[in-house]
Amino acid sequence: INMPWVILSSGVDEKLFPRAVRVAMTAGASGFLAGRAVWASVVGLPDNELMLRDVCAPKLQQLGDIVDEMMAKRR
């Protein structure tokens, strides 16, 4: 593909998505677009703000770190 593309979480289990991002980045992806793989486990739980900060933000950080690592290897 001769243009930027990203991997979509598309309901993939949150534990599998980091590996999927790594595989996609190896195949040339520019990043990821994640929804349920990041926030699904906290929907409906009490104190959403706390859950988003303590559960979802670290997941996003991990995914971003994978992208940063893989992009650095391309340079």
TrEMBL record:
Family note: Belongs to the aldolase LacD family.
Coiled coil regions in record: none
Protein name according to UniProt: Sulfofructosephosphate aldolase
Record carries keyword Cell cycle: no
Keyword terms, alphabetized: Lyase
InterPro entries linked: Aldolase_TIM (IPR013785), DeoC/FbaB/LacD_aldolase (IPR002915), LacD_aldolase (IPR050552)
Keyword S-adenosyl-L-methionine belongs to the record: no
PANTHER family: SULFOFRUCTOSEPHOSPHATE ALDOLASE
GO biological-process terms attached to the record: 6-sulfoquinovose(1-) catabolic process
Lineage per the UniProt record: Bacteria, Pseudomonadati, Pseudomonadota, Gammaproteobacteria, Enterobacterales
Highest taxon of source: Bacteria
Example of a GO MF term: 6-deoxy-6-sulfofructose-1-phosphate aldolase activity
Xref: Gene3D superfamilies: Aldolase class I (3.20.20.70)
